[in-house]
Amino acid sequence: MLSVRLAELYIPLHFPTINRPQETVSRYTSTMEGGVVSQLLIVLRYIYPFLTLLYFIVASTIALCLPPSDIYLPHRKNTVSRLLLLVILCFSLDGVLGVAGIIFWRLWPTQEDIFGLVSCIFTFSIIAQSFRGASPVITWHRLHGTWAIGFFCDILTAILQCISSQDTHTVHHSKTLLLFHASLAYIRCALFGIIFSVFLRQDHQRHRCSPSEEAPLLPSPDLSSSSVRVDIEATSAMRPGSKSDWLRRFQKLMILCPYIWPQKNHGLRIRIGLVGLCILANNGINLLIPRQYGILVDFLGTSSEKSPWLQVVIFMTLRLLSSEAGIQFMRRMLWLRVEQYWEKALSTAAFSHIMCLSADFHDSTDPTELYMAMMSGNGIPYIAEMACFQAIPTMIDLIIAITYLSIKFGPYEGLIIFATTVAFIKFSLHTISSAKNQQRQAWERRSDEKKSQHHGISRWFTVVLFNQTEHAISSHSKALESRLLASKDVRKSHDISSAIRYLISLVGLLSSIWVVVYQIHSRKATAGDFVLLLSYWGQITAPLGFFVTLGREINQQLTELERLADILHQLPSTADTAGAQPLRFFSGKVEFQGVGFSYDGGKSVLDSFDLSVPAGCTVAFVGGSGGGKSTILSLLLRAYLSQKGSISIDGQDIRHVTQQSLRSIVGLVPQSPQLVENTILENVRYARRDASDHEVHEACKAAAIHDQIMAFPEGYQTRVGGCNGKLSIGQIQRIGIARVLLMNPQIFLFDEPTSALDADTEHLIRGTLESVCKPRTTFIAAHRLSTIMNADMICVISNGKIIEQGTHQELISRNGKYASLWLKQTSM
């Protein structure tokens, strides 16, 4: 009996216009069905929750891109949270009063009363839920408007209800209920006023306690700097940063925008516009298909003599246009060129930027990480496609569906769909936000796995040489296990959230079916309307499910794109200065004046290094490892910039000339030359792309490598470089020498040019180098003193300074550091 009684109460409560006792309705709603006061109350029921939620959503969206304006202590957040719960409790008491009126006096609330009450509870529950979390900082300005809207709407509601209670046609019990409802509205106004007073009191206290205003002009000797520092650090710990996380992320990714929008390509912009039209057309068809489906079902369910084929043809045409062979096909064809443009623009920009970065960046960055960052640029077309072709059309479909179903089945249906959508999306956003760190960790673990693979394969010979195969396999296995464990956490979180989202969708569907089935049973809807509802519901929930996948995928892609954005934000430390001019070469005089340099701000490699090299002079640097010999050559080539002092060529500071002009006259033979994946001919020609085969052969003859190359079965067409181990270290070194000889620069730099050569080959190359370099300024860094004994000037380097300087014979006669090194090498 109790269940029957509850059913009798429930149905009229939710469907007040159906099967309701007429005399009861007229007694309660006599003042609600006419007049300005009743019309204003009806409008307030709908506009109150709508305006509040709309302001909160818009302000919250803006707040994502704005920094927190102030620091607020946690107790302020807790106070407002409790006051909000009291506001929700007042709305709940409104509902209790409505139920009491039904049970005791058979006074049924109107549809507008029920809709407004449920909507307000739902709206303020969303606002109260935003206070959850451990962060003590809340962006309060997005909430000020909600308090103001609530205050004015409630005060107006209370006044109108009091006026209605004075109507002489209103029954006694209705007057009592109206006065109770008005009292609760006044209480809510008071609660909103208390919230404002909390704001004002906290702002006043914060203003009075401002350190910048109360701090004395001269610090008191009794105050220790440590105590002040503790207060500052405590305050800083409460502030999340000068900018929000989303704003920092957005600003970081903004560097990719110039490569996305085709500013100079009118054809691509026209294609993008046509794609937008295709999206709008597809949205229109999505609206018409469920409607036509319902019309067709009703048409077939009747005994009409009219032919159904026209309706069938319309339905088939709409389905064809919305299929993969219709508008979707046209959209993909138009979009293909845009995707290819993005991929080319981003890949080219990323590669060129990385190639233009300085040596310090490449020395401190793993190449595998750069490869993965460049590959992440391919995620831009994916993100754009998902956002433009799924997210935006889905939002349009949701708005259309909520509006149309609200008009078709009443405000209850719209409220159910809207509540389901908001709960679904809010829970999804919470899940995506909480899983961001997990996805970032999974990406890092995947990067570690790729690094272990790359390092093991690229360093295979070293691994085998030291019998560390098992260690390499074990390291890769640990990296793989760590990546799988991180992926497991992400997948587990995804599965749990998917189950909860399905339950949310199911509850919404069952509620919607309840409404429509009741209307069909009451002859206010048809079976076709039921089919229409199911079609629209599938059209709504399927994209909502995609929203989650879209959000998760976009979040993962953005996480990877952040690394690419970080790289693009990197500026080369050796970039050309504004107004840099090409280097004008005259004679080749080089001067080092007070040069100081250190790697990563650590121990100084060079300290107040001074040296003047006349034009055409050959200078040799000798000394122990780590003394700064190779660093001097790198600074002269401007691979690095000195922190102190200056380096000039013919009186021109190399920091103020273009890098291209500098490196066109300076040629370096490094300790370990790198070969490109190509033939020997192209490797030597790499120094001067327009050189003829004959010039390449002559350079190789001068480097004493021509005969060995011709002994190969394929001669100069032998492919080398990469993992190809056909050449010895000495042969690779001679190819490096041949490159620089083919380049024929004005200034030569040699960094251990003959360290891997035998004595006979060294003798041949030394004679060639002396004849080629004699009229040019030359710098040689060497450990083997036999290579540089004929140099015009020999500098002994120790701890970044010159401790001895002179010719070979002068230094031997001084019996110093150089003489000691010469004695050790000649006595071996």
Topology at a glance:
Layout: H1 2-14, H2 22-29, H3 35-63, H4 74-105, H5 111-129, H6 141-165, H7 172-208, H8 211-214, H9 225-238, H10 245-253, H11 266-301, H12 309-322, H13 327-356, H14 359-364, H15 367-376, H16 379-409, H17 411-434, H18 436-458, H19 460-465, H20 469-521, H21 527-569, E1 590-598, E2 604-613, E3 618-622, H22 629-636, E4 644-649, E5 652-653, H23 659-665, E6 666-669, E7 678-679, H24 680-685, H25 693-702, H26 706-710, E8 719-720, H27 729-743, E9 747-751, H28 759-773, E10 777-781, E11 793-798, E12 801-806, H29 808-814, H30 817-826
Parallel strand pairs: 3-10, 3-11, 6-9, 9-10
Antiparallel strand pairs: 1-2, 1-4, 4-5, 7-8, 11-12
Helix pairs in contact: 3-5, 3-6, 4-5, 4-7, 6-7, 11-12, 11-13, 11-16, 11-21, 15-21, 16-17, 16-21, 17-20, 17-21, 18-20, 18-21, 20-21, 25-27, 29-30
Summarize the structure.
The chain is α/β, with parallel strands linked by helices and 828 residues long.
Commentary on this structure:
With 828 residues, this protein is α/β, with parallel strands linked by helices. It folds into three domains: 2-208, no CATH class; 243-569, ABC transporter type 1, transmembrane domain (ABC transporter transmembrane region fold, Up-down Bundle), CATH 1.20.1560.10; 590-826, Rossmann fold, CATH 3.40.50.300. It is built from 30 helices and twelve strands. The chain has a six-stranded mixed sheet with strand order 6-9-10-3-11-12, with helices on both faces. A four-stranded antiparallel sheet has the order 2-1-4-5, covered by helices on one side. It has a two-stranded antiparallel sheet with strand order 7-8. The longest helix is centred in the middle third of the chain and has 53 residues, at 469-521. The N and C termini lie far apart (113 Å). Mean pLDDT is 75; it is low at 1-34, 68-73 and 203-244.
